[in-house]
Design a protein that fits this description.
The chain has 244 residues and is of the alpha/beta class. The protein folds into two domains: 31-98, Ubiquitin-like (UB roll), CATH 3.10.20.310; 101-242, Rossmann fold. It is built from six helices and twelve strands. The protein has helices at residues 2-30, 46-53, 66-73, 152-160, 166-171, 204-219, and strands spanning 35-39, 79-86, 91-98, 101-106, 112-117, 122-123, 135-137, 172-178, 181-186, 195-200, 227-231, 239-242. The protein has a nine-stranded mixed β-sheet with strand order 6-5-4-7-8-9-10-11-12. A three-stranded mixed β-sheet has the order 1-3-2. The termini are far apart.
Amino acid sequence: MMKRIRYTLSAATVLLLAAGAGWGYMQLMEVRLADVEIRGSRWSDASELEQLLMVDTTDFMYHLDPVLLADRVRRHEWVADADVARLPSGRLVVDVVEREPVALIVNAHGLPEHYVDRNGFRMPIPEGATYDVPIVRGLRDAFHPMSPLGHDALRSLLRELPVLSADLDESISEIIVDGPDVSLWMVPAAAGQAIQVSLGQHDMSRRLDVLTAFIQQESLHPPGVQVRTVDLRFENQIVVKKRE
């Protein structure tokens, strides 16, 4: 008898949930768009995001596809991800996750051009946006708002920047693009002077680990002749040149 009661209650619950969902969709079919709420935007202008949605108050909520609308919002250079929800009140809620800059690209004249995130997507520089990130010089890659950088070595390096140790991250001042290769200018706290580090094209994660270990080892040595360049382009070999 108890099993029957439980089964009856479970079936009733399912029917109530289904009825509630159906009633919710019926409401959406009758309600027109009243307003749009953008949440999470800081550097992506809310008015620009609303324009990308391409909706207006003549639209019925039921006919607005959240997946399609979220995809439109992701076309903004600063938007990494977006989620859209339709409310029975007629409000369209857009939650935005913005890209996080890991470097600043400068042009041939040394002027700031774009921020770039760890996945190689470039973002315009809004007024008031300041990030303490390395400068990228020498990049000659055509800009496209929906495509990442085409430079493989630089893109590989950018992916590693957010997971570097704090000491190594803070010591990197510039990233130099030279043909297919990349190199760094860094000022380790223990060194006090800039060091040029050649990373080459491949295996950035391992080479940065080697660099971290090398810098830590050098910091244990007494002050004296200082390192001028470090070349990590060779397998299982570190080529070091000292200052004269």
